[in-house]
Each structure stands twice: as structure tokens, then as C-alpha cells.
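Teaching assistant's notes for section 4

Start the section by putting this record on the projector. Ask students to predict, before seeing the second block, whether Purple acid phosphatase will look compact or extended. Collect guesses on the board.
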Amino acid sequence: MSNDPDYLSCKKKECKKRRNGKCKFTTCGGSIIFHVINIRTDIEFVFFAGGFATPCILSRTQPVNFANPKKPLYGHLSSVDSTGTSMRLTWVSGDKEPQQVEYGDDGKTQTSEVSTFTQENMCSSALPSPAKDFGWHNPGYIHTAVMTGLQPSSTVSYRYGSEAVDWSDKIQFRTPPAGGSDEMKFLAYGDMGKAPRDASTEHYIQVRVGVHSRGPGSLSVVKAMSDEVNNGNVDSVFHIGDISYATGFLVEWDFFLHQITPVASRVSYMTAIGNHERDYVNSGSVYSTPDSGGECGIPYETYFPMPTPSKDRPWYSIEQASVHFTVISTEHDWWLNSEQIACSHRPMYSSLDGLLSVDKFFVKSVEPLLLKNKVDLVLFGHVHNYERTCSVFRNKCMGIPTKDDNGIDTYDHSNYTAPVHAIIGMAGFSLDKFNKNNATWSLSRVAKFGYLRGHATKQEIQLEIPEKLRTVSGLLEGR
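Reveal the predicted structure now:
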């Protein structure tokens, strides 16, 4: 209400009590706008004073219900293999009965498999967790179906739902290029979260990190990426951990899925798990922190089914054009001789000090595998900024890029020396400032919201941060 000038100046007065013809008690009217999406359950608006510490309810509305709580919503795509001929569509509905996806010019259909998760599936401990104890919200039903018989690098239209619950709008999407083909364009980032489209603060983690003081970065990033998708410049998106930052307040997943729909409904949206999806005390995660708020990876794996070996083993590899992507979980066992051989969310090199940014045991166990397997480029999130290294191994630059007349760094990996590491955790949740000490392996550091744009052929990979958010470019020569 403090943002409404009519309320502050009391322009809209209303007399509530009169005595001897004179007004003795006056109220001031104002208005506030909320951004509300279909979360399938009734909503109440409560007007209170005293802040979050000592709230005092002044007034509340009658419950407001949605016209169609069973409506199919938030469809998002993912690849199931490296052929580009099949695509998985996942969506949310309040209805548990199977629905369909209709696609292609000939109207092919596939029937959805339906799943959900319950409050009992969430984790808790001696201290109450948001997911199980005070932040639970019914997720409805998650539908998923695989569209088959597609052609790689082609445009297909689809809709999803049923006659019983309604249909989505018809949407066009692009299949990714097949593995081994010549060219692909992709976007990559980590640590997005979601920002409210109104003046609200939605749960404790936003207050703790001061999201509003830093701006709605995720909204700007999604808008920029959506423009690129609409212009046909994107084949796939890779979101490498810390997805929604729901952290146990389950309704936040609905808001996040709504936020990414303009992108994730149009191209393959591939993900990796992060600490804010998986970590919790005594849950099997490597790090016994409360970062997931008791979710323990269950909502993440239900909303974002990837081509993984099985549940709670969220690692996979996939080829698109000339690029082989290896995605693993840094929140599961990565010790020597574990099942995983590459890395994703937590970085190995960062100028941000402390264990929360780089785990030396993780580096010791996994970095030699990157060198042994001649990995060209490693992308990480977790730290909320952009930082790029030389070709580095054990804190030593094994190769330095050359710089052309336009200031573009070129890494020549035809004579391989070591991987290039890049942190790309600047997709919107918050930003981490750099300290003043530059390590010799740190070549580029930017604390701005954005994402990585990649263009890969069989000869080279061109990488840059889009100009409208801040231009930083790099070129990686292929072998």
C-alpha cells in the first residue's frame, strides 16, 4: 500500500462514523495489484500490519477460486536422446486423468503418463522444513508424453490437454540438431530463480539475500532469451542447477514454470540439479545443508524429467550437433570411482572466497578426469556471476588465449592442454560481487545479470554474453 500515492495522501476518504453531523472517523482507500497465476487452489488476500515479525490481520477477502483449476499449463520440452527425432513434453494440471499432446501437420497424438508427489515425500529434520512442515502446496498432477517421429532441426506445432479439461494454445517448437550434425545454437546459465511481477516478497530466502534490492534479474533474462527463441536463434537451453529457488515453498515451482514458458515451451530445456533442489540433512546428498528446504530433489526430478539412469541419479550425457554435453550432479557422490565423470553446478575455480563457492575435495576428485578425457569447456553455476579462466589445471594456466583486434579471446585447443572453466550463475536470482584479488587463472569477470550464448560447428565454438546485457566473447577452437 505504501506504493499507492492515493493511499499515502488519503485522496480517497470515506467517513465511517459521524457525530452531530460531523465526521469523527475517516478511512483512506487505496489499491494494490497482484500478479496471480492458476495454482489450482483457492486464494485469499489478507491485509495486515506489524510486518512479518508481529503480523496483525486487519482484513481478509473471501476465498477466490480459479475458473478451471484442472487447466493444463506450463508445458516445457526436453530431449530424450541425441537423435533429435523425439521430444518430451511435461505439463501441470489439476486433473489426474491422462491427457494428450497433439502434434505435427497430421495430428499425431501421445497420451501422458501422470505422476505427483506428496507432503510425506518431503524431507524434514529436528528443525521443521518448509517443504514438509510450513511451506507445502499441492502440486497437482504432472503429465509427461514423448512426441516421436520428428525430424531434427525442424519446426513442429503442438497443443496439450483434453476435451474434458481444455486445451493449451497451439505452440510451435524447434527440435534440436541430431548428434554428429554440423551446427547448433544454444543458451546456458545457472541460478535463475524467479522474481515476482508485483511488489511482493514471497518467502524468507528473498528477504535474506535482498532480491528486491538487486532487481528482477530473472524477468529480464527470460525476456531476452525469449526474443532470441522467437527470432529462431536457439536450438536448446541448458539450465545448470539452482532452478526455481522454491526451497520448500512448493507454490514457487508453479510461478517459475510460468516464468520460463515463453522459452521452455519452444525449445529443448535441459537441466542439472543444484544444491537448492537437492541438499538436506540426512538425505543422501554430499552436502548436509538445508538448502533445498526439504525438497530433496523430488519436485525437481518430477517437473524436469531428464534422460537419467533412474530416480535420484540425475546425471546424463547427450549430443547435439558437434557438441557432447555431459551433465552430472555435484550434490551426489563424485568421489574417485563413483559413477559420475564430469561436473555441472558447483565450480572448481571461482574468485569468490570460501567453501560455499569451491570445494577442494571435489576439485581433487574430478578435475583430473576432465583433463584425462580432454574436456574443452566446463560450465558451472552456484556462484552468482560470470567468470572465465585460461586453459587451467591445478590452479596453473596451461594455455593462454590470443586476443584479436575486436578484443575476442581465442583458445586454440587443436593442441590440447587443459579445460577452460566458466561460471555462468548470473541468470537472475542475485549477484555476487568480486573481491579485489585477481588470480592468474581468472581472465574475465562480470557481475551482471545475463546468460551464455553458444554457436557450435565442427570447427569451433563461439561463446559470448549477449550485448544487451553486457558483451564478453570467447572462441574455442575445436580439435
